[in-house]
Amino acid sequence: MILENQKALFNLPPEVTFLNCANMSPLLKTVNIAGKEAINKRDTPWEIKIDDWFNPAEELRSLVANLINTMTSNIALVPSASYGLAVAAKNIRLTGKQEIIVLDQQYPSNIYIWLELSSSTGARIITINRQNDQTWTEAILEKINYATGLIAIPNCHWTDGSFIDLEKVGVAAKTVNAKLVIDASQSLGAYPLDIKKVKPDFLVSVGYKWLLGPYGTAYLYTDEKYFSDGVPIEYSWLNRAGSEDFTKLVNYTDQFKDGARRFDAGGFPAFINLPMAIAALKQITDWGVNNIQETLSELTAEIETKAKAIGLEMPGSGSRVGHMIGIKFSESQVARLSKILPAEKVIVSFRGANMRIAPHLYNDSRDIKKLFKYLVS
After folding, report:
1. Angle at 32 between CA 266 and CA 57, to 5 degrees
2. Among 11, 61, 153, 186, which one is least packed by beta carbons within 10 Å?
3. What number of H helices and E strands is found in the chain?
């Protein structure tokens, strides 16, 4: 279903054409209000009850779980994608005879941790490059073999929105008994993802891009096989069984809370961030991720049509997600447009040789027309 324009729900001034949700989303008015109310509540700590430490976290877990078709107990609350990926790395066992598959020009947070794991285990990094008209999915599947120990990839490439079919990669990973770790930061909330079909070991996403929430709150999905003996990267009292009873905190226990909660970051109650994240995910749930993707796909298709008409190169609609598109420019063009567009309050990102255009429901054809006014001038 195509959704109506939702700009009225955001605090976006009329003169700003914001096409950069892949960098950081503007806040919904409801999220802004939730944050202000949370600050006011934090100003009176004597009114913060024990339930306030735990209940909002459980509500947020449930909202995230519903987005990806999993259980609340599979979700840990973490501050960043890099934190969640570090949890994954700590719980994946590799040998020097195995390989770690990543993409060329993959986002750094999903590279540095695997370089470290490679260094500590001897496992070899295999960087996937596409050949000719090959898709990322085809290139990945071509390299998976019985030496593959880990596949660490996104759902789409962060520079231009090129699509990776996670379901196909998930099947191939299971065939060779390889681990699958997904950074869904550039897709979760805008592109449908079903954990039961993909079956990753871990999946992480920041909350401040397509999930429309605050910076500093992110989400980690963990497969059930890591519940019983998974190793966290910090040892917070909040992760322990019975921590809701503050009178017994000195009765130390080896028992963690159920499921992925053992991987929660210390300070996960985040009294200001969590109400904001909850408000954001409630709105996304109300819209429906499938509807968001369908609506944004119309906008990026319009961008593609206009770009082709003036001879620009980009991934076609059949090889990318519908919520993001990267148009290739020369180095000199990137330098020129990097100055012109911000001055005209047209906000996009430049990633390598790509102008990355990432609209959301607050955009419409008028925004695209304004963008192309400066692309053809």
Report:
1. 30
2. 11
3. 11, 12
Bridge-based pairing state of the strands 179-183 and 202-206: parallel
> Looking at the DSSP assignment, which residues form a beta bridge with residue 256?
240
| Helix-strand-coil split of the chain, %, nearest 5 | 45, 15, 40
Its pTM surpasses 0.85: yes
**The domain 39-286: what is its CATH number?**
3.40.640.10
CA distance 208 to 83: 15
What does the pLDDT look like over 226-280, one tens digit per residue?
A: 999 999 999 999 999 999 999 999 999 999 999 999 999 999 999 999 999 999 9
Rounded Cα–Cα distance for residues 246 and 232 (Å): 22
User: At the topology level of CATH, where does 7-19+288-375 sit?
Assistant: Aspartate Aminotransferase, domain 1 (3.90.1150)
pLDDT in tens, 61-91: 999 999 999 999 999 999 999 999 999 999 9
Number of Cβ atoms within 10 Å of the Cβ of 75:
28
